């Protein structure tokens, strides 16, 4: 008795094989609505998990007590970013999480100005 083919199939399911990803996203490869979510979009929980939610949804809500990017959530869940985007779109639509754009680079202070201020303070 060889458990090779069965063992390999079970391993694919556990490691995020296509079957599991299909089930997790209910067969969707894109969000129902075109959500403006990219890898650097910050996600923050707005409510506690509700009973009957998918385990992946619950995990996202629990881990987003402080802002996390879509890429970080994908890494923590060991799921592809495309799958996480579908799950996040569901949670945003349900009002469970909030998506925030990252701070644009233009809003960051000018490095040269900071250096000039630092040198001025050192001369005092």
TrEMBL record:
Pfam families registered for this protein in UniProt: DUF742
Superkingdom of the organism of origin: Bacteria
Gene3D superfamilies assigned: Winged helix-like DNA-binding domain superfamily/Winged helix DNA-binding domain
InterPro entries noted in UniProt: DUF742, WH-like_DNA-bd_sf, WH_DNA-bd_sf
Protein name: DUF742 domain-containing protein
Organism field: Streptomyces albospinus
